[in-house]
Amino acid sequence: MASERPHCVVIGIGPGTGAACTRHFVDAGYSVSIISRSEERLAQFAAEIPHTVPYQIDLSDTQGYRATLERIVAEHGVPKVVIHNATQATFGRYEDIAIEKFERNFRVNTTGLLVTAQVFGALMAQAGEGAIVVTGNTAALRGKPNFVGWAPTKAAQRILAESLARDLGPKGVHVAYVVIDAAIDMPFARRRGSDRDDDFFAKPADLASEIFHIAHQPRSAWSFLVELRPFGETW
Question: Is domain 7-228 annotated with CATH 3.30.300.20?
Answer without folding.
Answer: no
